[in-house]
Amino acid sequence: MNSLADIGLRLEKLIGQPPVTADAEELLALGEQSLEQWVIAKGREPTQDQREGFRLLALHRQGAEKDPSFNACRETCRELVWHYNLLTLQPDHPESGQTARMMGWVANHLYLFISGKIETEQLGDFCCASKPLREKVDEDRAAQ
Amino acid sequence: MSDKKAKYKEVAYYPGCALEGSGHAYNRSTRALGDKLGLKLKEVDNWNCCGAMEVKNIDPKIQTYLSSRVMSIAANKMKQDVVMAPCNGCYHNLKKAEYDLANDQKSVEVVDRLSKKAGHETYQAGQVETIHALDWIKDSIGEEGLKERVKNSLEGIKIANYYGCMYTRPRHIFPEKDAGPGSESTLKPHFMDDLLESAGAENVDFPLKTACCGGAHTLSDSDTSTRLVANILQTAEAAGAEVIATECPTCHSGLEMHQIRAEKTLGIKTHVKIIYFTQLLGLALGLKPKKVGLHENVSDSFDFVKKKGLT
After folding, report:
1. This prediction's pTM
2. What are A33-71's pLDDT values in tens digits?
3. What whole-number distance in Å separates Cα of residue B61 and Cα of residue B100?
4. CB B164 within 8 A of CB B213
5. What number of C-beta contacts closer than 8 Å exist between A and B?
6. Which of A82, A108, A116 sits opposite B224 (nearest CB)?
7. Where in chain B do CATH 3.40.50.11810 domains reside?
8. Architecture of the domain whose range is B3-131
């Protein structure tokens, strides 16, 4: 499994090229891998299930369980799927080049959002709902 | 005249803390736009903080109370039935309080106890309707009404509309959204797109309309916010946008500040302009740049609007 750093480097390279229609599968996979990292960081086994035909959406749902703030990347995940569908269902569409380019940026946003949440020492304190941070502070106080 | 059209002609105005500080340009342009369109704003008397993120993260019920107090003043003291909040954070919190008071007995009890202690009438769910500045313009004037009033068309300006994460989330506190034709969408919001298009703008296909900008942690975790904002700005430029239109003071300030910081810390330079939708509409209706507070933005858009013939 790729580490978050590996995912970031690969996305940086893809965006720089920039991405083409044939990169749709890999961009979707990089999105899944980013979500897997989040689920693993929360101490869970990443699901192999699919939701609406996509494992990416099932992973997002799993990542948002008991953590509604994670829904801040819900539409980013859905945009990734939307771009994937456009590229795979109509690969020869005249706008495919631009669609692939935008898919690269969307995948990068998902990666940045997740890595930002994980980077901070207290998992989850990055986003608007800092409940996990608050709980940790409460636990620390109780332990003292 | 539709119900909303008449109802939104005069509304209670809740600017919130940000619009008195870093988001003052939004306050100025919202008021100027209202004046220009003949819409009356009656500022909520002695309003308080909505509870924003800070209070909510410590005790959500205190946030519910704080937001309920604003609605109580509007309803019981000012006898208004609509509160308009241009800030996404305030709008979100008032909607959340409304939802909690309609669905959670514990919240009702806490709000009643605190309201009595503070010496004002307890807000009852359903006394007011909370709307955003986008609803206000869209439903009182509408696209056709704007078209008729445009003096300086936004034609030729390519815009990425950025709504931020709090305008549509969580979905259950916005029952009027996703409610069929004409309603706002939580998946792909379009009210700002519709309004700016009616003023002549060309909206680009922007896939990060509701993506997180890291706004709430812009100071506590600046590096993450800078990377997220840089990605939003680069995506907007890749989509062909010259301007990112905003409708939230936190998003707007974050985009402006981290645009500068991205260049300094990441070497990522972007040229896209960041302008409130109320400023763009005001300019389109013939208001001067200063009248809509363009000088109060951190980023300098004067040359851009001049070049586009909006002065």
Report:
1. 0.93
2. 999 999 998 899 999 999 999 999 999 999 999 888 888
3. 9
4. yes
5. 76
6. A116
7. 152-307
8. Up-down Bundle (1.20)
